[in-house]
Design goal:
- By secondary structure, this protein is an alpha/beta fold.
- It has three domains: 6-81 and 222-301 and 440-491, FAD/NAD(P)-binding domain, CATH 3.50.50; 104-215, Guanine Nucleotide Dissociation Inhibitor, domain 1 (Orthogonal Bundle); 304-428, Guanine Nucleotide Dissociation Inhibitor, domain 2 (2-Layer Sandwich).
- Helices cover 34% and strands 18% of the residues.
- The chain has a seven-stranded mixed sheet. Strands 9-2-1-13-19 form a five-stranded parallel sheet, with helices on one face.
- A hairpin with a 2-residue loop joins strand 3 (45-48) and strand 4 (51-54).
- Helix 1 (14-25) runs parallel beside helix 9 (225-237), helix 3 (105-115) crosses helix 4 and helix 4 packs across helix 8 (207-215).
- The radius of gyration is 22 Å and the shape is globular.
Length: 499
């Protein structure tokens, strides 16, 4: 029997794990090479002094994408981890009041109506359009490799092109429905996960409001790292081989094909290479110049999603009346947005987000303690990422949190670790230290994103948040499936399949 073809996958983030599993399902011999000593990439886990932190993503949205992922392998998500819907979904701290966003749609409409009479009906109308975009956008746009206009020639996509609102900004779209500034901000905030200002993001992405308000906010038991462990376990069940704590130094191209992957420990032969590492890093550091898809000028013109300044904090006490997720919108967003995208600089008065998973899960903090993760969105590429600057911002946001919650917190800190732009560069080879990848602006969507296949090396493919479909955990799962389908389409299945 002919031995199976070999594919080397670089990186074990969500996209890399996804691509590896789909390739193994088709009978390929799959080896994943990971820089760190555990899987997960940016979704790694930090354990210190009895505290367990998700280092990366913490919002679990679009549960149907995860269910679909596991079903593709004849599995159920529940075979690997539990899910709990959060209610309220999250809390928003304004400058004058705090608002808990209910999980139930009827309760949510009542809240909208209390701020703006008539807005409950408007919300129904808005979400009806968002549901259409979610269904058509996910099925007919997101699961596409973005390599040709022919991919989008389905009749439903063509027929509904104007209903998809790809040429209108979500900011103007929202403003047609709602007048109250708080309602507008509530509707605009989910697109921040896409890495662009609402005025620069297509109204197509109102589908994110549908994901938020209809799909709900969930918590996987044990934290987001439970999803990583589930995907890693599934990959192992499919026969994927993992090489941890190993750095890739070079993709060796011979006669126009990637034939070897050299690391600091070994050399691997390959019939196909899939890079889930940072796209720019793969091109600029792992390939010889003549094999790169994109020039330095091209990369310099890309609009990057934000980086982040994070703090992993452990307390020796429990907090009163705290929710799992909180957004601090107590200062004007416009100025902070300008400092991220228009005139990149360290923010003067940042908005920020706080996750307190120990509210939901007692296993992530010592008994009587609390686990907090703070996140400040900041511009990619910022310099002077010093400890003194990090301490300045920690003091700033801690004072605001103490003010709004009405209790002392800083005096109870027993563990703290900061993580910033320079860490994204050193740990993930992240281009400009971005945290979320390439922004999903209108001019960086689908066909206009970096290609998932090399234009110069036929058997070299890319997956992850700098290529299609875009930033976020569900898109990363999808990205792995999309690129695996492209490989199978061009290089075929193997004779023996794992399913």
């Amino acid at each position: 029997m002919t031995p199976p073809k070999k594919v080397i996958v670089i990186g074990s983030g969500f996209a890399g794990l996804s691509a590896a599993s789909f390739m193994a399902k088709e009978g390929w011999d799959v080896t994943v090479i990971e820089k760190h000593d555990t899987p997960g990439g940016r979704a790694r886990q930090l354990k210190e002094n009895g505290f367990v932190f998700d280092m990366g993503p913490s919002f679990y949205w679009m549960p149907d994408v995860f269910e679909r992922y596991f079903s593709r392998f004849g599995k159920n998500r529940s075979d690997y981890y539990s899910l709990q819907r959060l209610d309220p979904s999250y809390r928003i701290y304004w400058n004058d009041i705090a608002t808990d966003m209910p999980a139930g749609l009827e309760e949510l409409k009542q809240f909208f109506e209390s701020l703006e009479p008539g807005s409950a009906i408007k919300l129904d109308q808005y979400l009806e359009g968002a549901a259409y975009k979610y269904r058509v956008g996910i099925n007919n746009l997101v699961y596409k490799p973005g390599r040709s206009l022919k991919e989008f020639m389905e009749w439903e996509t063509i027929k509904g092109m104007f209903k998809l609102d790809v040429f209108t900004s979500i900011k103007s779209h929202i403003h047609k429905y709602f007048k109250h500034p708080k309602l507008r901000q509530i509707m605009e905030f989910p697109v921040l996960f896409l890495g662009a200002l609402p005025k620069d993001t297509a109204a197509l992405y109102s589908l994110m409001n549908y994901a938020d308000m209809e799909g709900g906010t969930w918590y996987p038991g044990g934290g987001m790292y439970s999803v990583v462990k589930a995907m890693h376990t599934l990959a192992g069940e499919l026969g994927v081989n993992f090489r941890f704590a190993e750095n890739v130094n070079e993709i060796k191209v011979e006669k126009g094909l990637a034939r070897r992957v050299n690391t600091d420990k070994d050399t691997y032969t390959a019939d196909v290479v899939i890079s889930g590492a940072d796209y720019h890093f793969t091109e600029s550091r792992l390939l010889s110049p003549q094999y790169r898809n994109y020039s330095n000028t091209y990369w310099s013109k890309r609009v990057m999603a934000p980086s982040a300044l994070l703090y992993y904090v452990g307390l020796n006490k429990r907090l009163n009346n705290t929710l799992h997720h909180s957004l601090f919108f107590d200062v004007p967003f416009d100025k902070h947005g300008e400092e991220i995208y228009t005139t990149p600089q360290w923010p003067s008065e940042p908005l920020f987000y706080v996750s307190v998973p120990s509210v939901t899960d007692s296993e992530v903090a010592p008994e009587g303690g609390e686990n907090l993760v703070f996140l400040i969105p900041v511009a990619s590429g910022l310099q002077d990422d010093s400890e003194s600057l990090r301490e300045k911002y920690f003091t700033m946001i801690m004072e605001r949190m103490e003010k709004h919650t009405g209790e002392s917190i800083s005096s109870s800190v027993v563990y703290k670790k900061s993580y910033g732009v320079s860490d994204f560069v050193s740990d993930y080879n992240s281009f400009r230290g971005n945290a979320y990848g390439l922004a999903n602006t209108l001019w960086q969507t689908s066909l206009l994103r970096p290609s998932c296949q090399s234009k110069k090396v036929k058997n070299l493919f890319f997956t992850g948040q700098l290529t299609v479909p875009g930033p976020g955990v569900p898109p990363s799962l999808i990205s792995g499936e999309v690129v695996a389908r492209q490989v199978i389409k061009q290089f075929g299945k193997c004779e023996t399949s794992n399913l």
